[in-house]
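lol so apparently i was supposed to do this last week
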Amino acid sequence: MLTVSNLNQYYGGSHILRDLSFEVPTGKVTTLLGRNGVGKTTLLKTLMGLVPAKTGTVRFGEADLTRSPSHARVRAGIGYVPQGREIFPRLTVAENLEMGLAVKPASAQVPERIFEMFPVLRQMMKRRGGDLSGGQQQQLAIGRALAAGPKLLILDEPTEGIQPSIIKDIERAIRALAESGEMAILLVEQYYDFARSLADQYIVMERGEIVMRGEGKNMDADGVRERLSV
Amino acid sequence: MVRLLFLLALLARLAWSPACAALDPAQLARLGADDSDEKIAAIAALASADPEAVLPVFKALSEDALFVAGDKLVRLDGETYIDVATGKALAAPPDNAEAVSINNRVRRTLDAALAGLRLFASEREVRLTAAKDVSANASAEILPLLDKALAKEADPQIKQLLVLAQAKASLGSPDAAARLKAVKSLADSADPAVRQLLAAMLDKSSGSYAEPDEAVRIAAVASLTQIERRIAVGENLGRIFTGISLGSILLLAALGLAITYGVMGVINMAHGELLMVGAYTTWVVQGLFRSYAPQWLDAYVLAAIPLAFVVAALVGVAMERLVIRHLYGRPLETLLATWGLSLVLIQAARVIFGPQNQEVANPTWMSGGIELYAGAMLPLNRIAIIGFALFVLLIVWLMMQKTRLGMFVRAVTQNRPMAGCVGVPTRRIDTLAFAIGSGIAGLGGVALSQIANVGPDMGQGYIVDSFLVVVLGGVGQLAGAVWAALGLGIVTKFLEGWAGAVIAKILVLLFIIVFIQKRPQGLFALKGRFVEN
Amino acid sequence: MKVGTLEHADPTQREQWEDGAPTGRVMTPGELDLSHKVILYLEDITVSFDGFRALNALTLTIDAGELRCIIGPNGAGKTTMMDVITGKTRPDAGRAFFGQTMDLTRMREPEIAHAGIGRKFQKPTIFEQHTVFENLELAMKTDKRVWRSLLAQLTGEQRDRVAETLKRIRLTSEADRPAGLLSHGQKQWLEIGMLLMQEPRLLLLDEPVAGMTDEETERTAELFVSLAGEHSLMVVEHDMAFVKALGGKVTVLHEGSVLAEGDLETVQNDPRVIEVYLGR
Amino acid sequence: MRTPISLRLLTAMPRSGWIALALFALVAWVLVPVAHLALPEGHPLHVSDYFVTLTGKVLCYAVVAVAMDLIWGYAGILSLGHGLFFALGGYAFGMYLMRQIGRDGSYHADLPDFMVFLDWKELPWYWVGSDSFLWALVLVLVVPAAIAWVFGYFAFRSRIKGVYFSIITQALTYAAMLLFFRNETGFGGNNGFTDFKRILGYSITAPETRLVLFGLSALLLMCTLLLGRYLVTSKFGRVLAAIRDAESRVMFIGYNPLHYKLFIWTLSAVLCALAGALYVPQVGIINPGEMSPANSIEIAIWAAVGGRGTLIGPVLGAFTVSLAKSWFTVSFPEYWLFFLGLLFILVTLYLPEGLVGLWRRIRSTRDTTPAAPKAVAKAAHAPASTSTHSTPPDAAAAEGASA
Amino acid sequence: ADTIKVGILHSLSGTMAISETALKETALMAIEEINAKGGVLGKKLEPVVVDPASNWPLFAEKARQLLSKDKVAVTFGCWTSVSRKSVLPVYKELNGLLFYPVQYEGEELEKNVFYTGAAPNQQAIPAVEYLMSKDGGEAKRFVLLGTDYVYPRTTNKILRAFLKSKGVADADIMEEYTPFGHSDYQTIIAKIKKFASEGKKTAVVSTINGDSNVPFYKELGNAGLKATDVPVVAFSVGEEELRGVDTKPLVGHLAAWNYFQSIKNPTNAAFIKAYQGWAKKNNLPKADTVVTNDPMEATYIGIYMWKQAVEKAKSTDVDKVIATMGGQKFKAPSGFEVEMDPKNHHLHKPVFIGEVKADGQFNVVWKTKGPIKAQPWSPYIPGNDKKKDEPDSK
Ligand SMILES: Nc1ncnc2c1ncn2[C@@H]1O[C@H](COP(=O)(O)OP(=O)(O)OP(=O)(O)O)[C@@H](O)[C@H]1O
Ligand SMILES: Nc1ncnc2c1ncn2[C@@H]1O[C@H](COP(=O)(O)OP(=O)(O)OP(=O)(O)O)[C@@H](O)[C@H]1O
Ligand SMILES: NC(N)=O
Ligand SMILES: [Mg+2]
Ligand SMILES: [Mg+2]
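anyway here it is w/ adenosine-5'-triphosphate bound
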């Protein structure tokens, strides 16, 4: 379980994250919603150690990760699907997936499940990541994060650019991963329907602050959609 | 002419008279004289003495180890002084000993005498060298010697050399049949000197042909064409070889850069100095071997290889930790800082080792050359370097393409933050990769020490070429660097033969400029949609 | 607008392109010829990468003023098609015409842009070091030759146009910030704004609403619909709600060629489309 | 377009800039000459001829540094061959100076000494007219410009970028150096041109001549700065920066980067050539060593030390590095390379924006106000308005050296 | 002032540091010796060392600084001809005094310079004559191989004219140049081999300068071109340069100089001992193996001669010293008493030809009977007969 408390974050001088506190429990999907530019991606980057937290703590299970470098967080069991895919353009698809196993011993294999979810990856094993189409890259990014079997999966708008049928597959897969009870999932999503159908609990951000939170099933009732479109 | 007469006398006598036991003291005294003519006469006279007795004396003379001490002639054999006249070792080194010095003229006579004597040596290698020497200077006077040697010789290779020498020597024979035979057997030669001789037979400048016999002339024409073809083949082989050899050197100089720059994106202006570190390490290792293990001296290069890698890698680690680490993502700043580093390293070398070049000798197994073909002499050090380049290339390729480390390195350089986010300890990978690139540069330095200067400035001479190779090949493309290096090497060498070194170099540079117009991303351009963005 | 004229639209613009090896041989130098009401005409376009056919004899036409949606599975070749139209990728075979006369396969990128095709990339590409304002200024339709830029100064009218666009893309408050600091969605908007400033005849929009909230998606749809008619638009999206809001004709690409075409409803019910794209 | 260009030039720079420029002009044109000529040698304020020539030389370097920064800092084109244009300007003017020697050379011949010596019977065709000052000026401008233009045209047309461009410029200057080293080329081979006597009939060693050359160098520098300032604040400058950051995007909005790059590239080459032409009479020698790759790298280093992407930075850089070198080579002849090397390393590590960055930092700490957000807002503006800054980390790391 | 300042203008960094550093050391040593004996005119000499860093314009700048800022009485410096040419205008303008210690191409005679190295007739011409002699191997064909710059070009031009006068046909002369720093001599050595195999006895005259000598000799050794077949005589390779080469394969190749370390006489023994002591005392790198060479000797001679001239003139004034320099004599380490020509600013020097020995020293195989007078204007260059054998007086 990921526990974030009193997190503050600045870019230069502008206060981007204001005193955030929340939990991402194992076995559940936590969705984070918010309009463009409210700081969702910044929050995830802070969780990954890509930008240092100014104040506050990030704990994962027993460990305090607030000051750890990114790779230590991955080692602790966090998987990350960044916004904008960020695949390694000149590595082949196979190598990109192997990169997902960087914290595993060299003998580790890419789980078969990933190819079931994204068959196109198998077809394109030898192609360089940068040559894939946008949607294919997105699938690769998700596959890469899942390869090492993380205990916490962080996804930043994972459906962006993906064709509807595969979005459905992803939805099913996330559901299944959460229900297996071994994984905590933090999902940032603009696509409301998708977010709602997956959310066990939700968080809404506005200008760096959490302004709403609640059970996933109450999202409609709580008026989250309206809140997002003010 | 005088020299030739002496030669004749010496060789003739050697061939006919049985060996006599002791050396004539009068001749020995002349050997120690100041005048070259005296020395030459003495050598000629002594050459007919017992080979066992005279060989060591001649050897000593040719190695500056013969001394005049008062009225005695002594030679130095290892640590002991031996009285030449008596053949007995002296108890104490003579005071007032003065070396008998020789000049090239004396040395030529001496070499011929030595070669003649050595034709009958028991070691095959010695005879082989002697046969080569003899055949290079074969003339009618030494025919009897050759006959005698041929009669004794069993080794086919030496025999062949002697037969050729015999043929060469017989060209001047008054007997037309002998000449014909000689001309025919010389068809197997590829020696430009033979071509010269045959061409002279066909010379018609004095009205009639120099060679009176028509049949011999016809055979000479036939042989000449064969020889000329062979020489032409030899020349082209030689040129290709020199091209490949230059290419392998360019490659060794550039491989380290292909990693530090090509893969990691660090514009490492101190790359040349890493080569220098490798070369100085080689020199230091050589010095250590000379002092502490002279019997293993020939192996110093082998010992230098791992050491140069380690030392250069450590320098690389220091550079990375102290400077470059703070500059990732600011590639052009690395240019400035590494230029500074290169100045510091050069000056450090100058202060520690002095501004002069250091002497690095090829181990004996890398000295000299093998004659692939007459005219195409392949120096052993060049061959060794070509092999070494292949070896280093293989290592680099395996490391970058076949290991996880290589993959991590490539990933880190393509997307540093994301590499961290899949669990790669990016900083450690950076250091490691830079260390490896530097180590490879160190290996390049070992190779360079075998053919070029070892001095504080040596690296500066390679930096332009190294970058050219990496860039021409296509940044980050190992295969590209290989082709670029080889291509540049061969093109340069062919142009050089035709236009001279300076123009060739200018042409090659212009060629590169034009070539990049056609392939703006180098020979092995990265293709694909990600290139632009 | 004069149709079918051979006159050069803006004679001052010509010399700028008269360099370079593959001289953009505009078949008929002149204004965009829309005499057959077709603004974009792709015929049998084939593009392969190392033997893989990303586009396979693709044939497609877009009428002047039309708003066309292109959908299709990931990797169907949508982005590649846009690369061909904008001159970024040269097709191995086939023809591509802008209007009746301009052969796109022979024109260079800036020429194509100048002829009136604007593009928004799938991944937002903006000038990160420039401010939002400057991004729009650079994109503005003006004389883009060196001498003009050297002497250029923004007129009041031009300023107004930038301000107007800023408002439209809701980045007025960010006008003086370096564009690199914008969030993903803001960058998307900025890129659309730049496109608007260019006043192109044909807009190619590759997944313009990716990463936008639903509400913003709606607003974008409204914007595009309002642009149609005067401009022609080709929009690639995977968001069916958005496609629906746009309401134009839909073309489904699959494995490099057209699988189906028609209004959204027809296409959505096509079993092949459901199979390869929409899923069940 | 409505404001006259002269006025725009005026407004291109803030008032403090104009004041600084005026002060500089006062020093260069009034104080130095007076201190050199009027004060006796022993006087503490006397300016020696050593100082005048040294500073004159550095002023020329400063022009080159600014020219380099125009293409590197603002257009993102790193040339490692700018020494070539500098040298070509120097050679072009050197030809004139050689002809001005007249019959005063060691051979007392009409031809320059080295030609007499190599048995040339007449001037080669490319020397025709070199005895005319005006023609020399034409050569100074036209030859480097033409070479830069042709080279740039082909390079930019093929979209050669980043380090590929840098390396071929290096190859270019290297090839030129080898060419000029050859005696057959007709430019004095390795010795180049030296032993000049006169310029427009005035003795080249006269203090007045020196001061005029010094003043002209200062003038050239001021003009270069003004021109640079105008360019980078114009829309042209913004397009250039856009090309630097995303060339293909610029094409998609209809600019042709070729022309933009070509213009600034050629201009930069011409500025270098002018500096070279002023440099040669002041140092008294030009030879192919000026075209060596190391010299061109040093030019880039001036820009980087001072602060890339600013105009005053390169000037500071050229002064700091050259003067440091002059001083170190005398005070620590054995160790000066350590100091110079360390200077480069430390500047890069601790002053990522060069000396100008240091100055900015000092200034910003000085007027730090408690209102942090305000200061920050200002900082956020700074990179945009001055266009300094390197590429954002991720992009740059991935793209190697293409910035 | 209570000291006399003496400028030392040698590159301590860059490509020429290899050669020039030792000259700086020699100069400092000589100055120390002189000071130990009471200095000059009762004043100590104060060396001012600067580093022009192998950069020719920097030479000019440093020269100007030495003269106008430090006000040195005399400068010892320069190695390459181009560096000398670049400082010349400065010395003329400011009326300074320069001692140039390296063999060079001649074609120059300046009032402000004293040339203590060899002119072509004191090195190149005797060397080629030797090659043509019986002991030298009676060479009939010549390869003129050099670095592409003025010194080799000029020397070869003179040699070509000389060879022509000796009846050598143009077809029997091959001329080749390589750029500075050239490091790959494979092609050239193949060419030489071919040229040599085409007929008469061939010799190589090398004016390769600087770093290139190491790869050249390495290649020569490995390609099996022995001195007995094709001897190479070099004009710019001395003991110092050979320190960087494995000399075993080079035994028998030649060099022509006016001094060799191996020359045996008490003056030289003292000179060598002094320098070795100096090296140890100052912890020079590899102090135990330092060698002496011709330009070092020339530097040494120059300093002492200047001292004598100053003492004779009783002043360090440049014009006065120039006037008293002519006719100065000095017992040189070469074993001869060398004399400054009364008029032409060059030394009368003996010529030695040595063969390389395995230990990197030279075995003198030929020498002149005594010092010979320099001909800065080589008679083999047309028009030089009209030149005056003294500087233009202005
Ligand atoms: N490197 C940066 N420096 C300064 N400000 C930044 C930087 N990156 C982002 N910002 C600003 O921080 C704010 C939050 O950005 P962030 O990317 O976290 O938004 P987001 O919620 O993920 O939006 P979107 O839904 O559009 O992806 C935005 O206003 C953005 O302009
Ligand atoms: N340079 C290239 N090398 C190899 N394959 C490529 C290259 N460019 C594109 N492809 C392949 O061509 C196909 C079409 O790609 P394209 O980007 O056009 O798809 P798309 O329809 O835009 O997909 P998406 O909806 O995911 O953006 C993909 O399978 C992609 O992997
Ligand atoms: N004078 C010389 N060796 O340049
Ligand atoms: Mg985001
Ligand atoms: Mg796409």
